[in-house]
Structure to design on (95 residues):
């Protein structure tokens, strides 16, 4: 997928409603997870698993992700993190 042609989201568009469920792509353009929810300025990403079962929630800063819309209007993000790097992070637990 050529992300260079996708429209970047403006800061005002970065809402929980819009980002919920967005696919996260790693540096090799592979799917590495999806947005579970926002927690302040943190994005909780479900990594691994299958259909949400067995996924590990990890938290990264919103600034670590570049959110955009593709040609179909679907919201997704790219990051420099790999799936393995995310899996090594501590599990996010909501207070």
């Amino acid at each position: 997928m050529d992300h260079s042609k996708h429209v970047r989201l403006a800061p005002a568009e970065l809402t929980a409603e819009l980002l919920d469920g967005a696919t996260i792509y790693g540096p090799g353009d592979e799917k590495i997870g999806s947005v579970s929810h926002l927690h302040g300025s943190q994005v909780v990403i479900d990594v691994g698993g299958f259909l949400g079962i067995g996924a590990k929630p990890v938290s990264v800063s919103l600034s670590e992700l570049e959110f955009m819309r593709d040609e179909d209007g679907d919201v997704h993000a790219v990051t420099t993190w790999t799936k393995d790097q995310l899996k090594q992070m501590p599990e996010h637990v909501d207070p």
